[in-house]
């Protein structure tokens, strides 16, 4: 279940992946004196190296450090090449991988996963004037820009009756077509669209609600641990809950994603 909370201070809709009324179960942290996080260094804004200092930074990096601080455990974060990171975790060279590893049946044979801390919805984008009171039904007879061959294109084919698909090689190319007025709307990955919108704030805006469809758009982000390492997994889940309730998770989200894609 995905809930939403709007922060009155910043008027941004924020991720909410825990039930605030759920009873808090404190795990036994004695078996977890430290957490060795593995990540990658090529996935901005989640985990990458600062061009000036070479320091490992990003949303996932900050989240890992705050998890350790909340749990009061020692923490290390080590970057691996993407093609080696999962194997390194499997070989117990780390305790947890925070790098967007897919929650797939194949990965489930080797790893267990924390609760999802960030889902990746799909959203419509339109010109600012068209975003107010937007309804997908208004797209009948109009053109919708999508990335060619994407699940977002498939979604529009299935569920947006009467819309005409305009397919492009990438999300930004599709969004540029919206700015130029050659299409009437965009539908696709909301995360990528949020970064484009941050630079085109006077042109366009998210329209309507976010769409969460794990079968089409993926489950989102969770922390992977070696299969059977329940002590670390339970500790991370507890830490994620605490960070959300304290507001730290919201602060991290707004720091790294100035235009909310929720």
CATH H-level name of the largest domain... which superfamily? Periplasmic binding protein-like II
Mean pLDDT: 92
**Helix and strand composition category:** alpha/beta
Largest sheet: 5 strands, mixed
Q: Which fold name is given in CATH as the topology of the largest domain?
A: D-Maltodextrin-Binding Protein, domain 2
Helix content class: 25-40%
The tally of structural domains comes to 2
Could you spell the SSE succession in H and E letters?
EEEEEEHEHEHEEHEHEHEHEHEHH
Beta-strand fraction estimate:
25-35%
Q: Under the CATH scheme, which architecture of the largest domain would be assigned? A: 3-Layer(aba) Sandwich
Measured between the Cα atoms of the first and last residue, the distance is 15 Å
Q: Total helix count?
A: 10
The largest beta-sheet arranges its strands as: 12-11-13-10-14
Low-confidence stretches: 1-10
**Global Rg:** 20 Å
The dominant shape is: elongated
Short description:
34% of the residues lie in helices and 25% in strands. The chain is of the alpha/beta class and 262 residues long.
List the helices and strands and how they pair.
Layout (H helix, E strand, L loop, with lengths): L2 E5 L4 E5 L17 E6 L2 E2 L3 E3 L6 E2 L1 H13 L2 E6 L2 H9 L5 E2 L7 H4 L2 E3 L8 E6 H4 L11 E5 L3 H9 L4 E5 L2 H10 L4 E5 H9 L5 E8 L2 H4 L6 E3 L3 H17 L1 H9 L6
Parallel strand pairs: 3-7, 3-8, 11-12, 11-13
Antiparallel strand pairs: 1-2, 4-5, 5-6, 9-15, 10-13, 10-14
Description of the molecule:
The protein is α/β, with parallel strands linked by helices and 262 residues long. It folds into two domains: 3-119 and 219-256, D-Maltodextrin-Binding Protein, domain 2 (3-Layer(aba) Sandwich); 122-217, 3-Layer(aba) Sandwich (D-Maltodextrin-Binding Protein, domain 2). 34% of the residues lie in helices and 25% in strands. It has a five-stranded mixed β-sheet with strand order 12-11-13-10-14, sandwiched between helices. The longest helix has 17 residues, at 230-246.
